[in-house]
């Protein structure tokens, strides 16, 4: 079989905790993920039908078409995919909620006429997807929907330039040691709702709902001291959630129930 060597951007996702949910739930999850990936790639200007896709059972590996800018696989793709899965999770029952590990790499691979792809870059991609730092990131942030690990090469090419929508400061360097692979990578956990993560200690869970409600600031009148621009206001909602209200008018509501 004739093959050609091409430089390709590589993307992979894996569903966290997919085992033990049953065939019906897993099939629904797979359908939701496939649709979200299709829409997110399209939104990023990457033709889904031109991608070489490999079903991983509880995830997917995607080889982007030759010439695809690496930056487009981070923004808007990663942020679009994260937003779509968050929207799904708000209405989904616990068995069909989706959290993802994601990995990005790029390199020269062998591409066959039948669409098969092989080469060392795919091995690196697989190790990044299974790496402990990205697993730990989601375990330590139960409200996060996705966590992304990018290779050193991909970071230098797509993240360091600081293109619009990609903030280099949102990535932190980590060490990866998985099987035969050892090296550095860069971890990114998209902030909830696209807004900065809330800071400070968590609400006192021993307090009553009425106490928390009483302590919430009155937002019926304008805040004269609030800075102009895309500011964030955090208000407690009777103990059932946190409302993130951006000064631009966007509102995201993160519920506290049904955490995984």
Which residues form runs of ≥5 with pLDDT under 50?
A: 193-260
Task: Look at the helices and sheets and give the structural class.
Answer: alpha+beta
Q: Report the C-alpha radius of gyration, rounded.
A: 20 Å
Strand content: 25-35%
| Mean pLDDT across all amino acids | 79
> What global shape is seen?
globular
Helix content: 25-40%
**DSSP helical segment count:** 6
Number of strands: 11
The succession of helices and strands, N to C, reads: EHEEHEEHHEHEEHEEE
Report the end-to-end length measured between terminal Cα atoms: 46 Å
Task: Tell me the major beta sheet.
Answer: 8 strands, mixed
Highlighted features:
260 residues; 6 helices; three-stranded antiparallel beta sheet; eight-stranded mixed beta sheet; disordered C terminus; 11 strands; alpha+beta; single chain; globular
Characterise the protein shown here.
The chain is an alpha+beta fold and 260 residues long. The protein has helices at 23-43, 77-91, 120-130, 132-140, 152-159, 209-215, and strands at residues 3-15, 52-55, 59-63, 100-112, 117-118, 146-151, 172-178, 181-188, 232-236, 241-246, 251-255. The strands form two sheets. Strands 1, 2, 3, 4, 5, 6, 7 and 8 form an eight-stranded mixed β-sheet that branches. The chain has a three-stranded antiparallel β-sheet with strand order 9-10-11. Strand 10 (241-246) and strand 11 form a beta hairpin.
């Amino acid at each position: 079989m004739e093959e050609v060597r091409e430089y390709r951007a590589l993307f992979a996702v894996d569903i966290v905790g997919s085992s033990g949910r049953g065939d019906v739930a897993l099939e629904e999850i797979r359908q939701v993920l496939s649709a979200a990936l299709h829409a997110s790639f399209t939104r990023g200007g990457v033709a889904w039908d031109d991608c070489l896709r490999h079903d991983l059972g509880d995830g997917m590996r995607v080889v982007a078409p030759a010439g695809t800018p690496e930056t487009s696989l981070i923004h808007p793709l990663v942020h679009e995919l994260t937003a779509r899965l968050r929207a799904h999770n708000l209405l989904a029952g616990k068995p069909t909620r989706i959290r993802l590990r994601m990995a990005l790499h790029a390199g020269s691979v062998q591409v066959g006429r039948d669409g098969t792809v092989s080469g060392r870059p795919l091995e690196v991609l697989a190790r990044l997807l299974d790496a402990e730092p990205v697993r730990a990131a989601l375990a330590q942030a139960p409200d996060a929907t996705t966590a992304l690990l990018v290779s050193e090469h991909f970071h230098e090419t797509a993240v360091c330039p600081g293109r619009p929508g990609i903030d280099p400061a949102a990535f932190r360097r980590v060490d990866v040691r998985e099987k035969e692979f050892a090296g550095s990578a860069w971890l990114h956990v998209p902030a909830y709702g696209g807004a900065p993560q809330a800071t400070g200690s968590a609400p006192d869970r021993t307090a009553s709902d009425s106490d928390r409600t009483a302590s919430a600031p009155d937002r019926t009148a304008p805040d004269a001291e609030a800075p102009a621009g895309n500011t964030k206001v955090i208000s407690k909602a009777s103990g059932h959630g946190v409302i993130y209200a951006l000064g631009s008018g966007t509102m995201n509501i993160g519920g506290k129930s049904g955490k995984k």
